[in-house]
Amino acid sequence: MGSVLVFGASGQLGQCLAHVAGERKMDELVFLPEAEANILNPAGLRQLFARYQPTYAINCAAYTAVDKAEDEVDLARQVNRDGVANLSTLCAEYDTTLIHVSTDFVFAGTGNQPLLETDETAPISVYGLTKLEGEQVIPAHTSRYFILRTSWLYSEYANNFVKTMLRFGRERDELRVIWDQIGTPTYAIDLAGCILTIIGTQSQQYGTYHYSNEGVTSWYDFAVDIFELSNTTVKTTPIRTAEYPTKATRPAYSVMDKTKAKTQLGVAIPHWRESLKVCISRLPAQ
Ligand SMILES: NC(=O)C1=CN([C@@H]2O[C@H](COP(=O)(O)OP(=O)(O)OC[C@H]3O[C@@H](n4cnc5c(N)ncnc54)[C@H](OP(=O)(O)O)[C@@H]3O)[C@@H](O)[C@H]2O)C=CC1
Ligand SMILES: Cc1cn([C@H]2C[C@H](O)[C@@H](COP(=O)(O)OP(=O)(O)O[C@H]3O[C@@H](C)C(=O)[C@@H](O)[C@H]3O)O2)c(=O)[nH]c1=O
Predict the structure, then answer these.
(1) Is 103 in the pocket of ligand 2 (CB under 6 A)?
(2) How far apart are alpha carbons 38 and 130 in whole angstroms?
(3) What's its job (predicted)?
(4) What pLDDT digit, counting tens, does each position of 146-184 carry?
(5) Is any ligand 2 atom within 6 A of the Cβ of residue 244?
């Protein structure tokens, strides 16, 4: 096995990949934080590809500030589209398989049935639009790619909804959380495991996949379970999206169907509540 370059290594998913690669004793991964590999710098990227001749490139680098993206359209597009194009070009040139991560926010979220990979995309936010544009540039350069669309990532690393809720639970008397946005949380450790399974099995089932944990919930119900599993007592009130105004609009329904990932990649997917228990047990008690 040749080397595996991980871009955006200091973000949440990058750190989860380091965790799982350590557990699986996969020492071919090279973790590249933005300071060592800016995906907007083609010359710097080229030097890395020339030096490592990677078999795989995993792209965890992204502009993920959903509300801020509404005001920083150009920057979001540069990172989420142009950076992906830079990586795809080099992957084609160096015979490198690209594993890229995308989002449920490529969908409008107006339906009520689990979304298939072939369902129509229609993003309703700048973040979602630029992530879709990133998906679309890849096949123009290479056919050896995996695009994994995931949703509601959380883990013990970096900033995420679980850690925000636990902090608010300590700091506030009452929380108001949206209950009319429905989706599935994903433990980023499980997603990292899926990515490393693709590499470990040298899968050639290229294409676009949905990968979240199993099950369905709302942000409100997710918050209630976070508090229950962490023995946190805080009044939590369900509210409608309209009562929590944000700059970006989020999909109302973004549950994804994972049949393709389970059958073609052979990955087992835990239920979100089981994975949440694992994450909470690993977070330091406050
Ligand atoms: N977080 C979530 O809930 C979800 C995330 N996703 C997708 O999953 C992937 C991983 O997300 P996650 O780990 O949570 O996100 P993070 O925001 O935690 O990590 C993204 C990383 O990318 C880095 N980065 C930004 N710009 C560049 C650049 N030009 N060159 C190199 N690195 C850069 C960031 O560095 P810095 O912090 O220094 O800017 C950060 O370390 C992304 O593609 C995201 O779109 C999909 C669904 C849900
Ligand atoms: C903090 C907070 C959030 N919310 C709502 C707002 C929002 O609808 C939802 C989640 O809020 P957050 O800001 O944590 O997460 P958000 O940035 O919307 O999360 C998204 O990030 C991008 C990167 C993705 O790709 C998506 O899959 C999704 O995970 O919870 C409340 O209702 N009450 C609260 O106190």
Answers:
(1) yes
(2) 18
(3) Catalyzes the reduction of dTDP-6-deoxy-L-lyxo-4-hexulose to yield dTDP-L-rhamnose.
(4) 999 999 999 999 999 999 999 999 999 999 999 999 999
(5) yes
Domains of the chain: 4-159+186-215+255-269 (3.40.50.720)
Q: Please state whether the predicted TM-score (pTM) of the whole model is above 0.90.
A: yes
Q: Specify the pLDDT at position 238.
A: 98
The Cβ of residue 23 has, within 10 Å, a number of other Cβ atoms equal to: 11
Residue of 244, 256, 272 with the most ligand 2 atoms within 8 Å of its CB, for mutation: 244
Start-to-end C-alpha separation, the chain: 42
Active site positions, annotated? 127
How far does the centroid of ligand 2 lie from the alpha carbon of residue 42, in Å?
32
Contacts of 23 (CB under 8 A, 6+ apart): none
Q: Is 62 in the pocket of ligand 2 (CB under 6 A)?
A: no
Nearest alpha carbon, ligand 2 atom 32:
177
